[in-house]
Specification:
single chain; mainly beta; Immunoglobulin-like; 2 domains; five-stranded antiparallel sheet; 19 strands; 0% helix
Amino acid sequence: MAQADESWGGDTTITKVTVNGGKPIAVGIANVVTFPGSVTAADPDGIETAGVHVWHGTSEEDTDMTVPKGSRICTVVNSTTKTCGVTFKLDPRDLRKNAWAGRWNVAVDAFDKGNGGISLNAYKYAYIQRYSKLSVNASPEPVAKGKSITVTGKLTRANWETHDYRGCTDQPVKLQFRKAGTDTYTTVKTVHTNSTGNLKTTVTASTDGYWRYYFSGTSTTATVKTAGDFVDVR
């Protein structure tokens, strides 16, 4: 639950806050997603407990949702400092609007062993994204050297309002190639999805190797890449 910024006692400080290790949280349409969060707080009197909360909205009075979590587990760092962690559990069915994808607020609070404490409404931010899927197909297989290869695919993302996957339109997706016998992919060109999320482009066959699509994601949509599709060039 969002709280107004407040400090009492004057000595309690927040020294570290992490949510999912700083990485975005990708949420699909069916599976409950769990991710960790922790807060480290210090006070000359010692810390009794501390909490971390993830919520979406514009203010304490206008909160859309607070992510549920399990019981907190606190560990003493030293006589003045304690770290408290929780596991958040986010059910896609609770995400009622696609517009909620993107930046979420991270609130923290801490209470010392005396009468002091601190509560901060938006200490930092976490990003909760719509899970994405991507496909690739390179053909023909095999192909004569110097001939054209057509590489198709589709980029879709979770629709939290309809509980299915819909085409992700007008997005830049990298076409990458890895020569057989090597480990590194190189970007050949950037292809944009059409109005239904489909991808299609052509390249010239030169050597055996693997073709894949790679989408770097946005603040609201998760990063995704395909496995490589092997093409035998003869």
